[in-house]
Write a structure and sequence with these properties.
Blueprint (H helix, E strand, L loop, with lengths): L4 H28 L5 H20 L3 H18 L7 H23 L7 H12 L3 H7 L15 E2 L3 H6 L3 E7 L1 H5 L4 H11 L2 E6 L17 E6 L5 H7 L7 E6 L36 H6 L7 H4 L8 H27 L7 H24 E3 L1 H18 L3 E6 L4 E3 H22 L3 H6 L6 E10 L2 E8 L6 H10 L11 H6 L22 H10 L3 E7 L3 E9 L4 E9 L2 E6 L3 E6 L5 E4 L3 E6 L2 E7 H4 L13 E6 L5 E6 L1 E9 L4 H4 L5 E6 L5 E5 L1 H6 L15
Parallel strand pairs: 7-9, 14-23, 18-20
Antiparallel strand pairs: 1-3, 2-4, 2-5, 3-4, 6-8, 9-10, 10-12, 11-12, 13-14, 13-21, 15-19, 16-17, 17-18, 19-20, 22-23
């Protein structure tokens, strides 16, 4: 099987496109927030322009055509000929979404997305650019230019030029300028739009045709530009090609022309407005140079950081190898301990150094897999736009903690449940604009999507400022569907939890977003498959908050190894607040079958792990027992009773979901240093599904 270098380069191009699309969404978000400065507009323009240039190198005609029309409208905005209205920003977001679809369709060789023409026509109508006029100005086919070496082309008004000494520019493109999709002619036009200009093309470096390298750059230009212009305006024309060209700029009072190159014959462009950009070549594209060009807009500071793209499968293999290294390190430590080697020996010192090195390697590998949630949040922004348009609501999305890093696998598997939650918030959580106004709220609803690290886990929350959960309606539906008895007494939290039952829906009719009874139960199953939990809090009239708690990684965790009824278990260290040994004054009876412990002035429920996991019956006494005081997501605490604490160690997570399905209270399994398999507990889920029995009820005496 032959290696195809073009396939790798093409894949790199689409990775670059994802980065460009991210910067595009960021800049549009800033514009939507009121930042209408020129640099923000330039970032939007450069992103679209760079995607177009790279796509042209690969002959992706549909993508080039769409990006070109989008770019043309943005150029009107950049030149100040188009007003940046709320309607324009809305259309820009739609066009950016469709550009993303175009990129992915080109990547996957899929059909071109629908509705592109409608959005582009709406944008062009706002900008005053017509498709027909644009086609006349820049035809698709390549038009060869005839050359005359004794003339120049002159944009200048001679009277104006004589009045003020001109700026002197020497513009020398590098090869990367062409291969990244940029065109010197467009830059010269932009200069001419600033003021009167006289342009001379230098051709002395052009070799004979037999020696001509089609990927090299031989031409340069000398420009005299009206002198009454700010330098920043001139440099702004070249700001997104500055790293692929040489620009020598002399102020009007400098007097002398640029000294670098001798004067050259002149190549005119008699009808400069009719000159076309070359159509994408039919032969193999010059992709290597395109990828090495400035495809992603970046500042000089950002350019200092070098990145290397690695296939995810290779990283996964590295993660697995690190996991095996951790297991072998634990086995080695076990063997050394069993051999009775003194703690101050060279072997033990070397083992401790090896353990620290293993930990550093594991942390570094996990950092490679960790990614910020920002791309995921940007996808949710599109879901909000589409869902709000579908139900006729006005919704703003606020994101917080976009830089929070999570394991890449977690991010990928979180997309679907988060989409369900966002749509649910738009459709059910937020009221209609009329209802919001009647309730004294702003017309547009707000959904806040946030991410944060908390207690060794990542917490993602979706919060809306809508009407909150209609608990009487939820209860009525649950009774009608036979989910609960009519005389059942439920707390607010228990009523809210009914939303997670399979098939439960409060929608009165089936819509494009909801009403089919598939939603929150799917969310809970997906989150639980990741070792996470989802909870609801709601305040009637003020809104609801859905919280997802997930492990930072699906590979390795720090755990407390404990023993219960002869079984070895692992409790995640991140959920343990402290450990304590029970005395007679600590344990208090609560009802006929349960106990609580008295700890520093408060009472904490006691859970016997041996009884809850079915290893043995509740014990007759817990005096002298050891408890792990664990914290829950809602801030409450629980005391888990164990027989002994063995050690604290790093363990490799081995999933049980595929083989055994979901096991209440059990998150995964691991392999210990002696080769023994131990279950990794999920304390919060264990408490949620526990019976709480820590006492055998007193039996009545026989009469």
């Amino acid at each position: 099987m032959t290696h195809d270098p073009m396939a790798e380069i093409r894949a790199s191009f689409f990775i670059e496109c994802e980065e460009l699309l991210e910067s595009l969404q960021d800049a549009l978000g800033q514009m939507d927030a009121g930042e209408h400065d020129q640099e923000t507009i330039n970032v939007v323009f450069r992103a679209v322009h760079s995607i177009k240039g790279g796509a042209g190198a690969f002959a992706l005609h549909a993508l080039v055509a769409f990006a070109h029309r989008f770019e043309t409208v943005l150029d009107e905005l950049r030149a100040g000929r188009m007003a940046l209205s709320p309607e324009a920003i809305k259309r820009f977001f739609q066009a950016a979404d469709l550009l993303q679809d175009q990129v992915r369709a080109a990547r996957d060789d899929a059909a071109e997305p629908a509705a592109t023409e409608e959005v582009l026509l709406a944008l062009e109508a706002l900008s005053g650019v017509s498709k027909e006029a644009e086609a006349e100005q820049e035809p698709v086919d390549f038009l060869p230019l005839g050359l005359k070496l004794d003339l120049g082309f002159d944009f200048a008004d001679s009277a104006e030029t004589a009045a003020v000494a001109p700026w002197q520019l020497r513009f020398v493109p590098h090869a990367g300028l062409y291969t990244s999709g940029n065109e010197p002619l467009n830059l010269l036009r932009a200069l001419a739009a600033l003021g009167s200009a006289i342009v001379h093309c230098n051709t002395s470096l052009v070799p004979e045709i037999e020696a001509l390298d089609p990927e090299a750059s031989y031409l340069s230009w000398d420009i005299e530009l009206a002198g009454d212009l700010p330098e920043v305006d001139i440099r702004e024309v070249f700001d997104f090609v500055e790293d692929v060209c040489m620009l020598d700029l002399s102020a009007p009072d400098a007097g002398a022309p640029p000294p670098d190159l001798p004067p050259e014959p002149v190549i005119p462009a008699p009808n400069i407005t009719a000159v076309a950009e070359p159509a994408p070549p039919a032969t193999a594209p010059r992709a290597p140079a395109a990828i090495s060009g400035p495809l992603a807009p970046q500042s000089a500071k950002e350019a200092e950081h070098t990145t290397v793209r690695v296939d995810l499968e290779r990283i996964d293999r590295l993660v697995n190898l690190v996991g095996e290294l951790v297991i072998n390190q634990a086995m080695l430590a076990q063997s050394v301990t069993e051999a009775g080697i003194p703690t101050n020996s060279a072997v033990m010192n070397g083992l401790e150094a090896f353990m620290m090195l293993t930990r550093d390697i594991q942390d570094s590998v996990m950092m490679i897999r960790a990614q910020p949630v920002k791309p995921l949040f940007q996808r949710m922004a599109r879901i909000v736009r589409e869902a709000s348009a579908a139900v006729g609501k006005e919704v703003r999305l606020i994101t917080e903690g976009e830089a929070t890093e999570v394991d890449k696998t977690v991010i990928e598997r979180l997309a679907d449940p988060l989409t369900h939650m966002i749509r649910n918030a738009v459709d059910h959580g937020l009221e209609s604009p009329e209802a919001r106004l009647a309730a004294g709220k702003p017309r547009d609803g707000v959904i806040t999507l946030s991410a944060m690290h908390r207690s060794g886990r990542v917490v993602i929350e979706v919060q809306d400022d809508g009407g909150g959960i209609n608990r009487p309606k939820v209860r009525e539906i649950a009774i009608r569907r036979g989910l609960i008895a009519a005389d059942t007494t439920l707390s607010d939290a228990e009523t809210d939890a009914l939303l997670f039952l399979p098939g439960f829906s409060t929608a009165s009719a089936v819509s494009a977003l909801s009403g089919r009874g598939v939603g929150m139960d799917v969310v809970r199953q997906a989150i639980q498959s990741l070792g996470g939990r989802v909870t609801i809090t709601s305040d009637p009239g003020r809104g609801s908050r859905f919280s997802i708690s997930l492990p930072l990684t699906l590979a390795v965790l720090d755990g407390m190894v404990v023993q219960v009824a002869g079984e070895t278990l692992v409790v995640p260290l991140s959920s343990i607040l402290e450990t304590a040994a029970l005395t007679g004054d600590d344990v208090r009876a609560l009802g006929p079958q349960t106990n609580v412990i008295h700890l520093r002035g408060s009472f904490v429920p006691l859970y016997d792990l041996g009884a809850e996991l079915g290893f043995r019956a509740p014990s007759g006494t817990y005096v002298g027992g050891i408890v792990l005081l664990c914290t829950q997501e809602d801030g409450s605490r629980a005391a888990l009773l164990v027989d002994a604490i063995m050690e604290q160690r790093q363990v490799v997570i081995k999933g049980l979901q595929q083989a055994y399905g979901r096991i209440p209270g059990v998150a995964a399994a691991t392999i210990l240093g002696d080769g023994q398999i131990a279950l990794i507990l999920d304390p919060a889920d264990l408490v949620h599904s526990a019976t709480g029995r820590t006492r055998v009820p007193d039996l009545p005496l026989a009469g």
